[in-house]
UniProtKB/TrEMBL annotation, chain A:
Domain ABC transporter: start-end pairs: 4-210
Species: Halomonas aquatica
Entry keyword set: ATP-binding, Nucleotide-binding, Transport
Gene3D superfamilies, per database record: P-loop containing nucleotide triphosphate hydrolases (3.40.50.300)
GO terms assigned for molecular function: ATP binding
Domain of life: Bacteria
Protein name: ATP-binding cassette domain-containing protein
A Pfam family: ABC_tran
């Protein structure tokens, strides 16, 4: 988990009907969290969609996105190696907790069951593998979602306001856990949020988007 | 690649047979059909048609019963939604919609006939105490010359259809907020619903309403059971001419088919005019700003009418069941003196083959429709293009009267030398199964949160894996429901089976309808009950299987 990755955005511009929504030129080093802030409508989500490979038809994107020096702009979403953490934990309701964790593991992973068990133990959910995700608490779901992301071995991570739906207490705890794990895994991360506290906890550079 | 072909294939499958069928009805209607010696165009078939006794009345009955049945059904549905939304009755009715919808038209029509006939259940329950009848009165209630029982039979079946379509469309209107808003301005709930929700709902269910008009003005099986006989409705007359051993009658039948097309088009036009009138008076009613008057009676009629419809449908099915086991049953007795399984025992040996044909045709046409619909919807998701404008073509088989193009299609098949087989009938059923499967599946498919698939992709799953491992299992319940709808549609088909099978392939439905003429109620009871129960089995599986599979997964229980 400790290989180093870096994400570069070279003169990325996203336009809709000729109007530029987002324009960004930056790079994110291993274990670094870059925070992008801005009010709703400033194009934060559009930027994430572009990086992840889901930009809706109608938007025009220019510039290059390099992951470890490789241009991923033309790759389909599933081959980009970019993981996403959503506002909601989005645990697949038809799979068990272990099934959720296993879903994203690369096919060649050796001894998946043991890794799932270890991962559950690390987030304080040892023995939860067979549980129905719907029976977990909000905090437990959020932790499983984070672990599922990490086990899929991404090379970079995008965070889409991942703490906005948690209550205050849980939010603090999850911020700490998420940023700690991402740093530990040496993943370049891009956090989109409108909460200053998130930016502070991320501890990296902050870029403000204008509406 | 295959996916991209799916929408095109779907449109071709639906449109080509209809166009070919219409063309092959149009040519013989003007005397041109070389195979039968019609080498030149002429107006002879039309002159023959005009000379048919009672043709004017046939046309009038078809037109009127179609329009009136639709108007009543729509009113029942709208009044019910206005009066009962959110009540306990509402939850109860919502659960009944699918089973009600799954009852085939023919079975519902037989049920109604057994209920209202002079010796039917209602007469028995009220005789001799209320009516003084000691023997069945000599009244023509079923198959009355005005088509009233035909209209009633259609209403029973079209109410659940329009209700389901409305319930599917309502969530996007956010009716609770609209009504709450109007109530805060002093409107009583039912009036509020009619004034702020109904005008927005109608455009969303307009195509289904048109489909009901087209169906009701050209129906064959219900009209054979409940409709007038001297003369019958236009659609029934056409079928009689077409089935005549004298092949020359086919020219007459073709002219009739084109006339039917005109009758249905006229019905749609009249409805369109009525829409304008109603819209204008609604505008006036809304603008006047009345808030309370009529609320109580709205509540009462809204609930009563839907209860009456549901009660008639279910009592009718109950009546079929009683008749099927009735032994000796003197007239005013409410229940038979003795019960017997004789009718079942006698019917059993001959049930097997039609039952197998019904199941085979229904399963194959539904599977084909399911695969096509899934492929087209998956393609829509992947290309992320909004729903194609060609979508209204899906309604084409539902809006063009069956009888108008089906036997043109038979002529095409005869020309091609295709023999009537199960395959041909399956293909014919697909025309009607596919639209329903697609429409009921597309709802759920388009509402499905796109983040699930995005999540699967960012976790490294391929597009195919995202479909098989995420979208399909999560949409299993709505998929099975759509398939159950498909099965029900196929099982209920009379005309395509009869025409494309040339009477040589029998299904439960064709058997049941053909028994109508014989009038042996006990045998009809057996067959109509079997026909009514078949689709129900599909719905039981569609509801039960996901519950069984996901018994351990609470998040999958409330899925649509």
């Amino acid at each position: 988990m400790n290989t180093t990755h870096r994400l570069e955005l070279r003169d990325v511009r996203i336009r809709l009907d000729g109007k530029t929504l987002v324009s960004l030129d930056t790079h994110i080093g291993p274990g670094e969290v870059l925070t992008v802030m801005g009010p709703s409508g400033s194009g934060k989500s559009t930027l994430l969609a572009h990086l992840a490979g889901f930009l809706a038809p109608g938007f025009q994107a220019a510039g290059r996105v390099l992951l470890d020096g490789r241009d991923i702009g033309d790759l389909p979403a599933e081959r980009r190696g970019i993981g996403l953490l959503f506002q909601d934990p989005l645990l697949f309701p038809h799979l068990s907790v272990a099934g959720n964790l296993r879903f994203g593991m690369p096919l060649a992973t050796a001894d998946k069951a043991a890794r799932v068990d270890r991962a559950l133990a690390r987030i304080g959910l040892a023995g939860f593998g067979d549980r129905d995700p719907a029976t977990l608490s909000g905090g437990q779901k959020a932790r499983v979602a984070l672990m599922r992301l990490l086990l899929s071995a991404p090379c970079a991570v995008l965070l889409d306001e991942p703490f906005s739906k948690l209550d205050t207490h849980l939010r603090r705890e999850m911020r700490q856990l998420v940023f700690e794990r991402l740093r530990e895994a040496g993943l370049p991360s891009l956090l989109v949020t409108h909460d200053r506290e998130d930016a502070k906890a991320a501890g990296g550079r902050v870029i403000e988007l204008l509406p | 690649m295959m996916l991209r072909l799916a929408p095109v294939l779907m449109v071709i499958l639906l449109v080509a047979p209809i166009l070919a069928g219409l063309a092959m009805a149009l040519l013989p209607a003007f005397g041109y059909l070389p195979a039968l010696g019609g080498d030149s165009f002429s107006l002879a078939p039309w002159r023959a048609l005009a000379a048919q006794p009672g043709i004017g009345r046939s046309v009038a009955i078809s037109l009127a019963s179609g329009l009136i049945a639709t108007a009543i059904s729509l009113s029942v549905v709208l009044l019910y939604l206005a009066a009962a939304t959110g009540s306990r009755l509402d939850r109860w009715i919502r659960r009944l919609v699918s089973p009600l919808l799954s009852i085939p038209h023919a079975a519902a029509a037989f049920g109604l006939a057994f209920l209202i006939a002079p010796s039917g259940l209602i007469a028995r329950l009220t005789s001799p105490s209320l009516t003084g009848w000691e023997r069945p009165p000599d009244l023509l209630i079923v198959q009355d010359p005005w088509g009233l029982s035909l209209i009633a039979g259609l209403v029973i079946k079209e109410v659940p259809f329009l209700l389901l379509m409305s319930l599917a469309a309502l969530p996007q209107l956010d009716p609770e907020r609209r009504v709450a808003m109007a109530r805060s301005l002093g409107y009583r709930p039912a009036i509020a619903w009619l004034k702020v929700v109904a005008p927005a709902l109608y455009p969303l269910i307009r195509l289904p309403v048109f489909a009901v008009i087209a169906y009701a003005s050209s129906v064959v099986d219900v009209a054979m059971i409940l409709g007038p006989t001297l003369p019958p409705t236009l659609a029934v007359s056409i079928l009689t001419w077409f089935s005549d051993p004298d092949l020359d009658q086919r020219f007459l039948a073709s002219a009739g088919a084109i006339l039917q097309l005109g009758v249905t088009a006229t019905a749609l036009l009249i409805w369109w005019g009525l829409e304008r009138l109603v819209a204008r008076s609604m505008d006036g009613w809304i603008a006047r700003g009345g808030r309370r008057r009529g609320e109580a009676s709205l509540h009462l009629t809204g609930k009563l009418l839907i209860l009456l419809t549901a009660a008639v449908a279910f009592t009718g099915i109950g009546g079929l069941a009683i008749h099927s086991v009735a032994g000796f049953w003197r007239f005013p007795d409410a229940l038979p003196r003795s019960m017997t399984m004789d009718h079942w025992a006698q019917a059993l040996p001959s049930l097997g083959e039609p039952l197998a044909s019904t199941a085979l045709i229904a399963l194959f046409s539904t599977l084909l429709a399911g695969v096509l619909a899934l492929a087209a919807l998956e393609n829509e998701q992947r290309t992320r293009r909004p729903a194609s404008k060609a979508l209204w073509l899906l309604y084409l088989p539902l809006i063009v009267p069956q009888i108008a193009f089906l036997f043109g299609l038979v002529v095409v098949m005869e020309q091609l030398g295709t023999r009537p087989t199960h395959g041909l009938i399956t293909f014919g059923h697909l025309l009607f199964v596919l639209p329903y499967v697609f429409l009921s599946l597309s709802e759920a498919y388009r509402r499905f949160d796109p983040r699930w698939s995005q999540l699967a992709l960012t976790l490294g799953a391929s597009r195919n894996a995202a479909f098989w491992r995420v979208r399909l299992p999560m949409l299993l319940a709505p998929l099975l429901t759509a398939m159950a709808v498909g099965l029900a549609v196929s099982i209920g088909q009379y005309l395509p089976t009869q025409l494309l099978g040339a009477g040589r392939v029998t299904t439960v439905t064709t058997e049941a309808v053909s028994l109508a003429a014989g009038g042996n109620r006990r045998v009809i009871g057996v067959w109509a009950l079997v026909q009514a129960c078949l689709p129900l089995a599909g719905f039981v599986i569609a509801i039960g299987l996901p519950k069984l599979l996901w018994s351990n997964r609470r998040g999958m229980q409330g899925s649509p």
